[in-house]
User: Fold this.
Amino acid sequence: MKTKTKKMIAPVVIVALISIYYIAIGVIFAYMNGVPMLAKIIALVVPALLSGVAITVLIQRIKEIKKGEDDDLSKY
Assistant:
């Protein structure tokens, strides 16, 4: 396996796990009895937004890895 491909596996796995976690918590909370509808909607929207942001950052990171920018902090 190429080095760049190996460097892309970890971020993808982490973002996938975090997204599954966020969405699972939102869905579980939304199906709880006795919770107001507004709270259920917020419980679904916020994790979805967090997952969307994580996926956006993942896409940016993959582009950086493809360009050869392994360490962003080395620029500073």
Remarks:
- DSSP finds two helices and no strands in the chain.
